[in-house]
Amino acid sequence: MVDIPLKPKNETFTDKQWQAVFDSGDNLLVSASAGSGKTSVLVRRVIEKLKNGSNIDELLIVTFTEAAAREMKERIQNALQDAINKESQQERRNHFVKQLTLLPRASISTLHAFCLTVIRRFYFLIDLDPVFRMLTDDTERLLLKEEVWEELRESYFDSSDQDFYRLAENFSNDRSDDGFTDLIMSLYDFAKANPDTIDWLNQLPQSYDTTQGLAGNQMYQTQVKPLILANLQTAIGQQKTALEVAQNTGSMEKAESLLDSELEQARRLWTYVNEDKVQQAYEQLAAFDFKRYPTFNKQEEVKEISEEAIKPRRDSAKELIKNTETFFAQPPEKMLELMNHARPLVKKMGEVTLNFIEKYQKRKQVKGVLDFNDLEHFALDILQGNGEGSEASEYYRDRFEEVLVDEYQDTNRLQEAILFWLCNPESEYGNLYMVGDVKQSIYAFRLADPTLFVDKYSAFAHEEGGRRIILAENFRSRKEVLQFTNLVFEQLMDETVGQIPYDEDAQLVPGFSSFPASENFNTELLLYEKEVEEDPTVVDDKTEGELYLVALKIKELVENKFMIYDKKQKENRPITYDDIVLLTPTRKNNLVIMDVFKQFQIPLEVNDAQNYFQATEVQTMISLLEIIDNPYQDIPFVAVLRSAIVGLNEEELAKIRLAQKEGYYYEAFLSYLKNQDELSVRLRSFHEQLESWRSLARRRALSELIWTIYQETAYLDYVIGLASGRQRYANLVALAHRAESYEQSSFRGLYQFIRFVEKMQEKDKDLAEPLALSQENAVRVMTIHASKGLEFPVVFLLDMTKQFNYSDLTTRYIFEEKLGAGIQYIDNEQVCYDTLPYQAIKQQRIKKMLSEEMRKLYVALTRAEQKLYLVGSYKTKEEALKNLGESFGPRKYSIRSCTPIKRESQFNGLGWNDLDAAPRYAE
Amino acid sequence: MELYQEFQLGNISSDNLDFSLDNQTTSKRKDFELKMYEIKRIFAAYEEELAKRKLQIEQPLTMLTNFLASENSQEMAKLEQKLFIVTGFSNFNMQEQELLKVLFGKSQVCIDLYIDSIYADNGPLDLFFDPKQTYHLLKDFAQSQQERVLFDKKAPQLTQVSASYLELERCFKQTSVGRYKQEHNLDDFVEIWKAENPEEEVKQVATEIRRLVVDSFTKENEQLYYRDIQLLTLDPELYYPFISSTFEELDIPFYLDQDRTMEQHPLVEFIHALFALDDYYYRTSDVFRFLRTELYIPNDLQEETSDWKEARNRFRWMVDLTENEALAHNFHGVDWTRQEDWHLFDFDFEQEEIIETKSTEKLSNHVRNDFRNDIVSFFPRLKSASSTREAIVIFYEFLQEIGVEKQLLCWREQELEWGNLEYARDHEQTWASLMDLLDEFVEIYGSDSFDFDLFKEILSSGLENLTFGKIPTAIDQVQINSLDLTRPLQAKVTFAVGLDETSFPRTTENKSLISTEERQQLNATLQEGQYLKDQTEETIRKEPFVAYNMLLSASEKLYLSYPRNADSKQNMKVSPYLARILNWTNLSVQDHSSLDLTYEARNYVGTYKSLIRQLNGLYRQAQEEKKTLPVVWQSLKDLLLASDYRFLAQRVFESQTHRNTPVNISPELAEQLYGKDIYSSISQIETFYDYQYDYFLKFGLRLKEREIYGLNSAVTGEIFHEALDNFLKAIFQENLSLTQMSEEHRQLLVEHVLENMFGQERYAFMQGNARMSFIRYRLKKTIARVSWGLKKQAEKTRLTPVQTEVLFGEIAGNQGIPGLQIPLSNGGNLYLRGKIDRIDTTTVDGKPWLAVVDYKSSAHKFDITDSYYGLAMQLLTYLDIALQDAVELIGQKNVHGAGAYYFHVYDPVMDPKKTGEKERLKRYKYDGLFADEPEVFEAFDETLNKSQYSSVFPIQMDKNEQLKKSAKSKEKFYTAEEMNVLMAHNRKKLKEAAERILSGEIKMNPSYKMKDKRRATQYSPFHSISAFDPMLEENDYYRIHPLSKEEIMKRLKEENDG
C-alpha cells in the first residue's frame, strides 16, 4: 500500500474510485460493477502516473477490443493535452509533450495486438520467419483448415487404422461423417485455448483410466463423488427437517415411518458412496424404496403442515436422490467396460487432433501466415522460453512499471499465462492492475474463464497475493433499475451459481443523484398469453405475440410523450425512438422483429447483422461476377437478366427459354440472339458487354473490373433511387473496396474471388454491411453481447421465457478446460451410452452455463438507464403467476446450488412474488 | 535485403557487427550480440555469394563519392568553379553525407534547410529538429575542416503570400508549444471539412474543384487552372479508386502520381497458377485458375481458326463447359495427368434420368488432352534439367510453345484498338521484364545445378515488385500527390483528404529485423560516419514536420478534410493536428455531408452524368421524408431530360418506381413453356404451392443449380430407396417371405443386393476415395438395419408388401400404370407421374385392404394443414392412385384403403434405458393417415396382448383386450368418408395448380408456416433471382396458420355442400 494523496474537496470521484486511481505497490483487483465509472478511473490512473513522472511506454494497458483501446488512447490524449495547457513548469510540460509523442506507439491495445508486437520483436527466439501476414479472414482460415483436414482424414481412412475407423463411426450419423469432422474441429478450437495444447490433448485418456476400479478413477474421485455426496447431504438435511416437523406435529405416523425409512436408506447410500463401496451404492440406489406419500385429508391443520412443510422437503430430497442415478445409470462393471471401450477412441481423437494441429501449422508456415490463435501461443512460447522465462520476458518485465488489464473477467488461461511473463512474478512487488466485473463475464464461448477473476477476488479479500478494491456505486441508472437488479440477483446468485455471492460488496448502489423522482420508472413486465388470444389467425406465434406487445408499448410511449431525463441537457424531455433498445438473446428473431416493426411503421436499426452478401444489389453483382467467370450457370445468369442490369421480366425470360428448352439457360440465350426482335437487340447488347467484361476480367484488377461495370451500367446510380438506396449504394462501393483489399491480402483474380465468396456462403459466413447513413431516430436491436459496455435510456429485454439452449451439451462430445473431454460411446447395436467422464463434465458445464446465462441477464438488466421492460410469454396469466412465484419461497434452494437445472429460462427463477418493486403486469 | 540496404546507407559493414561474445557481458547484452553476430554471418554469406558470382550491388552514391574523392581526375579542377545546389532535404543519410563532405572540399555547395532558428528549443520535439540537427552537423563538419562557410543566411520573410498564410504558419508552430494567440483571421485561407465517408469526401472535393475553376473564369488575371490544384492523401489505396471514378464522372482531368506494380499483371498470376499445379498436384481449382488466365490457348485451336479472337472465344467456351464437368465429377490430380479419356456419366437423381453427355464428353476430353500434352508434360521435362541454364531454356521454350507471348501481343493489339495506350505498354513491359529476369537468372545461376524450388521462388517473386513505367502527364491536370512528400507553396490550392485521427499522424510499426533499442545499442558502438537510422522513430518524429509542410503547401487556399466513417470504422475524429488548429483559432469544422434536399444545389452541381445520381438519390430522400423535390432540382431535372443524357437518366430513374413483383406470362406462352398437357410429379405441384416463383424458375425456365461433386441428401435418399426396392424385389423374385426367412438369409440378401447396386455406373463416384468407402460402409449398415426393421414389422402386421416402386405415369421413358390424369380447361390434361414406394395388402374377413408406404430419409409426420394447402400431397395422391388402380396392382376389386404411411429409413441411435428389439422396432413406427375402421386394427398388429401398445401402428390393446387408437394419435385416423373427402380435395388442388400454371400466373408468394417458422425462402436456391425481401412493401409471405383436423373437415364439408 502506498500513500494515497488526499482527495481534494471539489473532486467528483468517490473514495473508492480515488483509491483505485492511486493505490499501488501490490497486485490490485478492481471489481467494478456495471456503470461504476471504471474507464474514467483507469484513464485517471494512467494520467496520474504520467504526472508522477512515468512514461507512457512503461505501461502496458490491455483492453478487450480495439475500439476500447482507441477510446482509451483518445481519452489519455485529451487529458495530456489538458495537462500541457495547464502546466506552467517547463520541465513538466516537456515531459507531457513527450508523452504525447510517445502515445501513438504506447502499448495500449488488445492482448492480441500486443502479442503481435512481441512476435515482431522477438520472432527469432522461436525460429519464426519474421515475414508473415495475419490470416484475418474467417473464411480463408476455415478453408485452409478444411483443406488440411480433408487430406489428413483421407490418409487416415486409407491407412486402415481400426481405432480411427471406430472413432469416425462413433461420431458419424447413419449416413455421413460430418459429425466426426465437427468433433475434431471443436476439439482443435478447445485445445488451442489451453496454454499447453499438446499436453492437454495427451492427457485426455487419463480420465478413462480403469486400472484402479471405478472408485479409483480420478474423475470419479474429484468430480462425481463430491457432487453425489453434496446432493445426498442436502437430501438428508431435508429429510431430517421434514421428519422433525412430522414428529413435532404428531399424528403423522405414516409419514414418519416413510421419512424414517427413506432417511435411513439415504444415509446408507451416503456411507457407501463415502467409503467408495460403489457396487453397494449402485445396488442401494437401484433398490431405493420410495413409498407413496400419505395424504392427510381428515385433519385440515395436519394437511396444511404436511403439504407446506413436509411433502415439499421430502419430494425435493427424493428428486435429489433420483438425480444421483445420472451417475449410476449403469452398474459399476458396465461403467468400467464403457470406459475401456472409450479410452482408445479418446486417445485416437487426441492423436488425430495433434496431427491436425501439426499439419495445419505447417501449411500456415508454407503460406507465411499466422492466425489469431498463433499470436497468443507464439507470444507465450517466446515469453516463457523453456519454462523459465526468456530474454523477452525479462525485457518486458523490466520495461513495464505496471500492467493494466481491463475486462479482466474475460481473460482465459492462455492469456493469464502470457500476463504472468509480463508482470513482476513476486507478489510483494505485484504490478498487475486488473479491472473488471465477474458478474459481466459473458464470453465463455470464446473460452473466457471467470474463475481466474473469482479466485483472485476471494484470495485478495484476505490480501493474499494482492488486494481488491470494490466500486459499487452506479452512475448510470435510476434507483428503480438498480433496486430491481439487486432484488433479482439476491435471489439468484450465490457462490455456487455465479461463482461469487451477491452480497453487500456486489450490490449496485445508486450514485447518480440528478434523476428527478418519478413514479413511472418501475420495471415492467410485458407478458404475452399464448392461449388467451381470441382470434388464432391474428397472432399465434409467441415471438410475434411478444413483439406486438413491444411495438404497441413503444408506440404508446412515443405518442404519449413519455418523459425521460436527458443527462446531457440535464432536464426531462419526451422519449424518441433512438432512446429505446431491444435486447435479444440471439439474432435469430431479427427477421420477425423487422417484420413486426414494419407493420407498425416503427423505424428500426438492426445492429451487428452480418448479412452483407444477402443484400439484393450485392447478390446481383456477385451473380454478374459469377457469369463473367463462367456463364454456363443458370441461376446467376438469370439473376443478372432479371436484375436492373438487363431488366427482363418473366415473360421475356420465358421467351428466351423457348429458344432452346433443354440444357443450360445460357445456350437458350445464345440461340435467342439470332432472332430479330426488340428483345434480341437488348440481349445482343448485353452479350457484347458481357464478352468485353470477360476479357477485362483476365487483365485488370478486380476492383477495376467492378468500377468499370458500375460505370457502364450506371448500376450505382440506379440503386440509389430504390428504397434504402443509400445503404445499397454504400454496399456496392464496399464491394469494390473489399475486392481490392482481398486481392491485396490473399488471392488474385476473379476466379479465386468467386470461389471465395461461394465458400463463404457455403459456410454461412458473411460480412457486416458498411455503414451508410445510420438511421437516425430508430429503435435499435442488438444482442446482449453486443450491448456490453453500452447504456440506453429504455431497454426492452426480449424472449425472457425462452428455454435455455442446451444444444451445446447434447453433442456426443463435451469438453472442459480442466476436466478434459467426455464422450458418449456407441456400441455395435447403436446404443449410445454416457461415459462417466461425459456425465461429470456435463454437470460441470451445465453449472457453468447457468452461471453464464445469469451473468448475461445481469449485463442486460444493467444496460438500462431509466426504464426496463421484460418481455416473455406464458400460456395464461395464471400459469405465469404460478411459474414466476414458484421459483421462490420454500424451494429457495432449488434455484441455487443443488439442482441448478431447474432454471430453464430467464424468467422462471426470478423470484417475482417477493418483489415490492412489483413489475406491473401488462395485458 | 532491406536491412542490408539500410546498413549500406548507414555506411556500416558487416565487420562492424563483430562483438566479442565473451562471458563478461550481461545476458541481455549477450542476446543482442548474438543477434548481431547472426546478422553478420548472414551478410557475410550473402556477400560471399555475390563475390562468387562476380556480382556487385551498385552503390552509386559511394561510387560517385569515391570518384570525386580521387585526386587524379582532370575534371576535378573544373569542379572548383561549380556550384552545387542541394534543396528540399531535411536530413541526409551517411552515404549522402560522405558525398557532401567531398563536395565541400572540392567545390561550392549551397544547401537550404527549413528552420526557424538555429537553436533547437525542444530537443527532438522541435518541429525543425531534423533540419536543425543537419544544419549543425554540416556546419560543424565544415568548421572542423576549416572550410569556409560563405553564406549562413536566413531567408527573408515571404512577401508574396497572404497574411493568413503566415498566420497559419505561426499558429502551427506556436501551438505545438502551447503559446499561440490568434492575430489574423484564417477563414479565407483554410477550410476544414468533415464528410460522411471517403467517397463523399472526394465528391465534395471534386465539386469544389469544378466550382473554383469555373468561378475563376470570370476573373481576369486570377484564372485558376487545374494544374494549379493539388490533392494530397496519405492513403492512396483507399482514395485512388474514388478519385478516378469521381473525377472521371465530373470531367476533371487529373494525374495520379502512382507507381503501378506488375504484381497485378496476369502474367504474374499465370506463373503463380502454373506452379500451383505442380505444388498441389492438379487440384481442380488450380487447373481452372490456370486456364482462366487465357495466356494459354492450345495450338490446335489456334491452327483451326486463323482468327485469334475466335480461337480464344472457342477455348473459353470449352473451358466453361469443362469446368462444370470437372466440378460435378471432382476431376482432380491424376484425372488431369492420366492418358485415358474421361467418361462422363451424369445421372439426375431428382428426375431419375441419365443426362446426355456425349458432346460435352468429347469437348472436355479435348481440353484435358491439350492440357495434358502441353502443360502436364512440362513439369517432368523441367525437373529433369541438369543445369539452371537448361531449365530456363526449357521454360522459355515452353512459354513460346504454348503461345504466351503471342497472347500478350494480341492483347496489346487489342488494347491499342481500344485506345488504352498505357495498358498496351504494360503487356509489353511485363513480358520484357520476364525475359530480363530469365537472362539475369542464367547469368547468375546458369551453371549451377537446377534447383526447382529456387526457380519457382525467383520467378514468382521476381516480377511482383517491379513497377510499370509511367506515361508523361498532360498539361492541365489536377495533381494527385502523396501527402508526406509535399512541400511549401507546391500549388495554389491544396486539398488534403483523409485527415482523421487514425490516419494522421501515421502509426508506424517497426517491421524490420532490428528493433529501436537494438539500433540504439548498435549505434553506440559505431564509429563516426556510421549510423543506422531508425525509420520508425524518424517517421513518428517527423510527422509534425509533414503536417507543417502540408499546411504551407498552398499559396492561396487550403482545404483539409476527414471522413467520419470508412467502411466499418465509425465515428472517426479529426486528426490531432487539425484539432489543435481548431482549438486555438476561431476556425470551425464545416459539415460537408452528402447531398440533402435542404442543401444549396449550387455546391453540388457537377456534370449531367453526376446529376443523374444526385437526382435519383434526392428523389428517394424526398420519398422517405414525404417531401417534394425543391424547385432548383426540378429545373435541373428538366435540363437533364432535355440533354443527351436523357436516355441514361430515364433508365436510371426507373429505380424510383421499381417494384419487385413478377409479371404473369400470357397463357399462350405458358402453354409453350409447360406444354398443353402438363406432366408433373407431385413434389413439383407441392413446390408450386410452397413458392410459385420458384416453380416458375425450376420447371418453367428449367433452371438448375450448378452440380458439385458430393453426396447430397437427394443422392442418399435415392440410395436408400433403391436398396429397399431391390431388397423386396429380390424377395419377391425368389418367392421368399420376409417373415419366414432366417436372419442370416436376410443379411446375405442385403449384402448381395447392395453389392450389385453399388456396382452400377451411377454410383461409380462413390469409389472415389477412402472416405467414400467409409461412408458406403455406413450406408450399407443403415440399410441392413432398415431391412431388419422391415422384417420385424412383417412379423407383426398382416399388411404384406405386394408391390414395390410402383411407377405411375411416365418416368425417364418408362411407362408405369396410368395413375392420375386430370382434364384441364384448356383441353389438355394433367398427367401425374411418380413412384409409390410400396403397396401393402391384407384381407380382413374377406374384405381386401390396401395401404401405401412412403420411404423418407428424415422423420416425417403427416400434417393435415400442409395437406390442405397443397404443401404435402404425396400420401393422399399415392393412396388415391393405388385404390383407383387396385385391380391392376393387386388384382382385386372393391379394395378398401387402410391408410398411407411414412416409413423412416434410418439407423436409430438407442437410449441405454430403452434398448432391445421392441424399442428399436418402435423407432420405425409408421406415421401418416390410418383407416379409422376397428375391423382393420387386428390386421395392423396381430401380436398385441392385453394393455400393450403396438410398435408398428399407433394402436393399442386395452385391458379389456379391445384394440383401439392410441390416445395420442387419434387425429391420425380417418374414416373412409373422411379419406375420400381429403382425396377429392387433393385432386382439386392438383387441378387448381395445373390450371394456374397454364394461366401464366406467377406470384412471388413464399409460404411461411407459422407453426415451425419455416419459410420457403430459407432453402430456395433461387434467391438471387427472386430477390424476395420482406422489408419491401410489395414482398409478403403467404402465411400458413395451423388448422385442426376438425376445422379442415368442416371447411371441406362446407365447400362440398356449398
In short:
By secondary structure, chain A is α/β, with parallel strands linked by helices.
Describe the protein in words.
The complex is a heterodimer of chains A (923) and B (1058). By secondary structure, chain A is of the alpha/beta class. Chain A has five domains: 15-129 and 371-471, 3-Layer(aba) Sandwich (Rossmann fold); 133-193 and 335-367, Enzyme I, Chain A, domain 2; 214-329, Four Helix Bundle (Hemerythrin (Met), subunit A); 524-609 and 775-802 and 864-887, P-loop containing nucleotide triphosphate hydrolases (Rossmann fold, 3-Layer(aba) Sandwich), CATH 3.40.50; 612-763, PCRA, domain 4. In chain A, the strands form six sheets. In chain A, strands 15-16-14-17-21-11-22 form a seven-stranded parallel β-sheet, sandwiched between helices. In chain A, helix 20 (542-559) crosses helix 21 (590-600). Chain A is globular, with a radius of gyration of 32 Å. Chain A starts with 14 loop residues before the first helix and ends with a strand. The model of chain A is unreliable at 533-538, 885-904 and 909-923 (pLDDT under 50). With 1058 residues, chain B is α/β, with parallel strands linked by helices. Among the domains of chain B are: 2-52, no CATH class; 60-144, Rossmann fold (3-Layer(aba) Sandwich), CATH 3.40.50; 163-172 and 180-253 and 494-508 and 545-592, 3-Layer(aba) Sandwich (Rossmann fold), CATH 3.40.50.300; 262-464; 604-657, no CATH class. In chain B, 48% of the residues lie in helices and 12% in strands. In chain B, strands 12, 13, 16, 17, 18, 19, 20 and 24 form an eight-stranded mixed β-sheet that branches. Chain B has a seven-stranded parallel β-sheet with strand order 5-8-4-9-10-3-11. In chain B, helix 17 packs antiparallel against helix 19 and helix 28 packs across helix 38 (976-998). The model of chain B has no long low-confidence stretch (mean pLDDT 87). Classes of the chains: A alpha/beta (923), B alpha/beta (1058). The interface between A and B is large, with 124 and 129 residues. Chain B: Residues 2-149 form the ATP-dependent helicase/deoxyribonuclease subunit B N-terminal domain. Chain B: Residues 681-1007 form the PD-(D/E)XK endonuclease-like domain. Chain B: It holds the Pfam family ADDB_N. Chain B: One of its GO terms (molecular function) is exonuclease activity.
